[in-house]
Design goal:
The structure is a single chain. Helices cover 38% and strands 15% of the residues. It has 319 residues and is α/β, with parallel strands linked by helices. Strand 2, helix 2 and strand 3 form a beta-alpha-beta unit.
């Protein structure tokens, strides 16, 4: 099959490109010009194309995503739109930064149609739900986002699915939960805890009494691939999450037991606002019906992250 992937230099985008190419698919990877991560994707290009799949890198700013239809030879069956401005840090609360993403999503849908795609797959977020202290169900749980990021994602879903229906395209909206693994960004909880422990420092944490769900990056890429390829995947929302939901403190303790069993954890050292503390307890029956069960346990994923750390740093850092 032929795929277009926007946001191809991101953590999930790179993994998805690897997954699609390894399965023999052709991928048009849309990336921001002069992206700091572009060199990383190009460095992987030769290795990725050793299989039967072909990779084409297209440099295009997100605000010009609609120009894909003007580029010769860009044809595909499925469009993965992972690119999003202001996905981290303070920009998550910036109205203007988030608002423009809705229009960019609409332009990506129109470009997908012009490029021959029959299926459009966005990148939703559990942030669309806000704080829900119970199991979340795709078709029954009402979203109440508390940050601009979640509100913009929800608006992009509602308007995107309507536009896609007008254009006669299948519209799939994976609500992606907490993805971790080798190559993830430095600011995540998993990276912070691992790095602190490797430096013999005590991680400073909230009480971590909320429920959480971690998904390893390779399982995430596999789920997205199946949503793009499987005939069982229909228009609608899918929770992209693992079957492993626990109190967050249990995950943190497992990281400590793997990385540095002798180190302490400072639960409660940081204050948290209950009204802005996510409670991640997704129902995963729907995605299991399309992609099956996860292959990676949390323990195995943390061990792989440590292997990745060792590969780039050659040794365990000292305090």
């Amino acid at each position: 099959m032929r795929y277009i992937v926007s946001g191809a230099t991101g953590f999930i985008g790179r993994a998805l490109c690897r997954e699609l190419l390894a399965s023999g698919n052709d991928v048009a990877a849309v990336v921001r010009p002069r992206s700091e991560r572009l060199d990383n994707l190009r460095a992987e290009e030769e290795r990725l194309q050793k299989g039967s799949g072909r990779l084409r890198i297209i440099e295009l700013p997100l605000e010009e995503i609609g120009k894909l239809r003007e580029i010769d030879g860009v044809r595909a069956d499925v469009f993965f739109h992972l690119a999003w401005n202001g996905a981290a840090g303070g920009e998550r609360e910036d109205f203007d930064a988030q608002y423009v993403n809705i229009a960019y999503t609409a332009e990506a849908i129109r470009a997908a149609k012009a490029c021959g795609c029959r299926r459009f797959i966005g990148a939703g977020s559990q942030a669309e739900y806000g704080v829900i202290r119970k199991k979340a169900h795709e078709d029954r749980t009402l979203p109440h986002p508390f940050m601009m990021y979640g509100a913009a994602k929800l608006a992009a879903y509602e308007m995107g699915r309507t536009l896609a229906a007008q254009l006669g395209m299948t519209f799939i909206w994976p609500r992606i939960y907490s993805v971790y693994g080798a190559g993830e960004n430095a600011g995540t909880l998993v990276s912070y805890v691992v790095d602190s422990l490797l430096r013999s420092e005590t991680p400073q944490l909230s009480s971590c009494e909320n429920m959480w769900n971690f998904l390893y990056i390779d399982d995430c890429a596999k789920m997205l691939h199946e949503l793009g390829e499987s005939e069982r995947a229909q228009s609608g929302i899918y929770h992209v999450a693992s079957e492993d939901t626990r109190v967050l403190a249990e995950f943190v303790k497992e990281i400590r037991d793997i990385v540095a069993p002798e180190e302490q954890l400072a639960f409660g050292a940081k204050e948290s606002d209950p009204a802005r503390t996510f409670w991640l307890d997704p129902d995963t029956e729907k995605i299991r019906g399309v992609a099956g069960e996860c292959k990676w346990t949390f323990r195995r994923g943390i061990q792989e992250k440590l292997n990745d750390y060792s590969m780039y740093h050659n040794k365990r850092p000292e305090g």
